[in-house]
Structure prediction request, 426 residues.
Amino acid sequence: MGATNGKRKKEPNLDIWEHPKGSRIKVSEIINRTRSQDFGGSFRVYVPARVTGKGRIYRQFQSKEEAFEYAEREFDGKQKHGERYFALSSSQREEAIQAVNLLRGTGISLIESARHAVQHLRPKAGDITVSELVNELLSEKAKLNLRERNIRDLRNRLGIFAEAHGGKLIKEISQADIERWLQGMARLSVRTRKNYRRCVASFFSYAVKREYRSTNPVTNIAVPREDWTAPVILSVKEAQVLIKTAHKTHLKNTEGKYGWGMLPAIALQAFAGLRTTEVAQLDWEAIDLDRSLVTIGSAIAKKRRLRAVDLESNCVEWLRLYERKSGKVAPPNFHKKFGWVVAKAGFQDWRGSKRNSLRHSFGTYLYASSQDANRTAAALGHAGSDVVLFDCYRSLAAREDGEAYFAIAPESTKQTVVPFPKVTGA
Prediction:
């Protein structure tokens, strides 16, 4: 068979084959030549445009067998699939064959593998590191009118996660990475570990929402199981000691310095169930002693809903001793001074087991004395059917204990109102 172009005619001893016969695909023996120097021979396969339906294809091989095998494969592909067969280049088809071989026996199709790769290796929003996304999330949360303490908590928890994985790309973080990170917190309480898991799960949900990755790696990580324990409450005697200590130190401490001004804030926690964060921001204008009512505005309430709490009579009596018309109920440096009061009252472990004991004591003793779930729930800001109320407060105290608790009052309601003292050097 004659050569197909002028250059080949100059090499009369070189062969050209049509392979397979009638395919119009040519296999040519050629000399590898550069700058008039010969470097051995090889075999070139030429697939014309009238076969591919688009451009011509040239492939070169070291042996005639390899060239014939390739020519046969191209012809068979055209016979089976028509011109669609040439939609991929030869190298792309080779990659596809290799991919199919790798997936053989896994039950995963090539298209499934490709979709997974696109989702996980090429996220739509591009690549971003853990530290960069933490900053992006905090910036966005700051624009959503979240409370500072919520932003601070989020920053602290995600900051600890970023210390371990900050330089990694978000798409690279695996479930195993997060499980190992959580396991490193084994010394912490179950509740704390649950809080960290919830925070990181929310972080990766944000990553999915922003299309930095396709799945949340925390979803299938088991939530730590927390054994239920009864809330710690003060005994009636302990409550008496704390209130009397607050009363005494409100006026003057044993060293003759100005008092700490803590009694009203402690009374509202112990006998009205206010949260520490609520009483720390409460103004005297929100307290109506004539109506025995305190109003927790939406700006300071935990759930951002206005809550009105009926004050027990002993709480009113204590507040009347130190009533003011305006200003904050809690003194400056409230948390520090609270620590002084509880230490002076003999409670050395308050930050541990007794951390929320004033609110828990109120709920327990109010339910015990009244046996009124709706009243207790309303005072605490819970839903009337809240099972937490019953899990936490039911059967923890007898009715007589509740009555004794709310009988803790000043010796006489006729005491002179004491001006709210100044606090210096605190």
User: Anything to note?
Assistant: The chain is about 45% helix and 10% strand.
